[in-house]
Amino acid sequence: MFRPASFLVALALVGCGPSPDSGHSLAAPSEANLVVYGRIWTGDSAAPWAGAVAIAGDTVVAVGDSASLTAWVGSSTQVLNNGTAMVTPGLMDGHAHFSSGGFQLASVDLRDAATPAEFIQRLKAYAKKLKPGEWITGGDWDHERWANAPLPRRDWIDSVTPDNPVFVSRLDGHMGLANSLALKMAGITAATPDKAGGTIVRDANRTPTGILKDGAQDAVYAVQPDPTPEQMDSAMVRATNWAASKGVTAVSAVSAPWGEIASARRLRAAGLLKTRISFYPALEGWHRVADSLNANGPGDDWIRVAGVKGFVDGSLGSGTALFFEPYADDPSTFGLLVTPEDSLRKWIGAADSAGLQVVVHAIGERANALILDIYDSVFKAHGQRDRRFRVEHAQHLRPVDVPRFAQLGVIASMQPYHAADDGRWAIKRLGPDRVKHSYVFRSLLDSGARLSFGSDWSVAPLDPLLGIAAAVTRQTLDGKNPGGWIPEEKISVDEALRAYSVGDAYAMFAEGSRGMLKPGYRADVVLLDRDLTTIRPDELWKAKVRTTVVGGKVVYRADAE
Fold this sequence. Notes:
This protein is of the alpha/beta class.
């Protein structure tokens, strides 16, 4: 049975942060439920800094200098004092696979397996914990960590997982490794043809190696059992607790299964939901989303069925992102169009006619050009309205396509940590010229585009502070680019913070209630352990969350762990 956690906070009021000339409040001072002191970055360009925030219920009621806001402190007011360290609005994640991340927290962790031998050993150890027949999924392996980067093979793991079907994903989710048992269950043999939008990797004898790319993964997914409601709820509890620990107060949950939405509602009823969630189920099921909205409305600022999410291509790491020119390290391929163009046009047009927000995954240059073309055709055919179409990832753009985001009003929903990761090896896929047009944060901002930042969790860590560090420094995870990978595309701390707050709120149609610390806005607040604007850029990677407040309630405290 779920039991909501309770938090007792007793922090003494000591020094206070910098003070603006004047404060802002909803009404004359009365006793607040919570007052937060610190160096407060409000996200409000009209009053960007404050010394204190007062909260009543789930709403910010006053923002201003610390001296004036002491009038809101009464005998029952909870006080959080962050000294000279930064306080921000609740940080958001514009692109997360929320329940998948929760499942991965309890699954085998292959992300940092540094060698094939370690990859095998971890699967062997994990399999010993399971009953025969239980699936091993997740994993998030990264073959780029291994010498010469070989793709794993089923014969590596068959002997250590004889009784358990295995399908462990590369960290980008666009290819995975199946053992022989899983391939047999899925009916994949040497005679199985590739389907459109997918690839079965084969050896010299045409025998499947176990690696399945993009659409080829569907055959394995089809034979995996759906999680039970209890399993989904456990995963969602892990996910919402993890989000709170990272200062994430709201997410766009993309490619969300309907079971995830039902679970979020159960968690909320039980008092366990700590994250505001905007859900984007699959684009091809747009009619079900439209029917749900017509019958039940979109929801509220805790749980909202927001729109639909589609795919144009795969990923760079899996060699399936779609480009105009072939891959530098594999001239036989341009990548994959994982959804037929006619289907994309039909579904996006229908979803837009139904009034849904459409967000679509596009990574390669050709994929991004295509989705911008489709969006443009919808604008022309259906007329003007506040659509807020989004391109998810927008990682590799031709220079000619950069200004089209602002011209069309399309949001670039991007994940900076991917740049720190991909920058280790992207040049071998793209070559020295094409790679320069990767993760062009600065160029997009300068062109007038709106940025919405996220993580793509569990593809990357659900930690906006790591994303801010990646966007500001553009350092890569291997330490080989201390001055930044494609450094001309760096952005400032303020710009990165805005993309994780104001930008994400706009991308979720929530800019009137979230993303800023401003009277009348939701009381979502994050207390950090340092001031991101005054430390050296290379120190940004060390920043941590001290306390997270959602809806006026403390949902995470580092000192309580």
